[in-house]
Amino acid sequence: MTGVGDGMRVEEAIGLQIARLRAERRMSLTELGEALGRYLDRPWSRQAVHQAERGQRAFTAAELTALALALDTSVPALFRAEGDRIELPGGAVSPEEYRGILLNRERNTPLDGVEELIIALHDIGEVLSRPALVRLARIGEVADQVASPEPHRT
């Protein structure tokens, strides 16, 4: 763990996921607030949803459950973060360590493969987009073209 101030707070990571999922589902702030009302004692106001998306509020377990239900996702998916260190009150954890806690580590528990697959695909995408690998892929393409040129047409 490193010092506080090195990354984003967990609430901000959750807020980014709420905003992303709401946009993907083409829901307005008001519509999400009303959907939450079906699972909580009352709906959230438009402003409350906006504050949540900006990471300006803490979440109860019931609220996280309602958000997952309203956004048709899982609770762990709400915690996803895109490569930033995550700040906790005592310090920040690495992106890898943070992603690791989202995976089910119990040997006897069936895996929920969707979250693991999403995280693995994200990691693969990051690796494949590295400039050195992109250059190697181009070199490989050129080598293939040189090794087997297209036949000349007559």
Automatic annotation (TrEMBL):
GO molecular function, one term: DNA binding
Transmembrane segments: none
SUPFAM superfamilies: lambda repressor-like DNA-binding domains (SSF47413)
Species for this entry: Nonomuraea diastatica
Family annotation (InterPro entries): Cro/C1-type_HTH (IPR001387), Lambda_DNA-bd_dom_sf (IPR010982)
PROSITE patterns associated with the record: HTH_CROC1
Stated name of the protein: Helix-turn-helix domain-containing protein
Residue ranges constituting the HTH cro/C1-type domain according to the UniProt record: 18-78
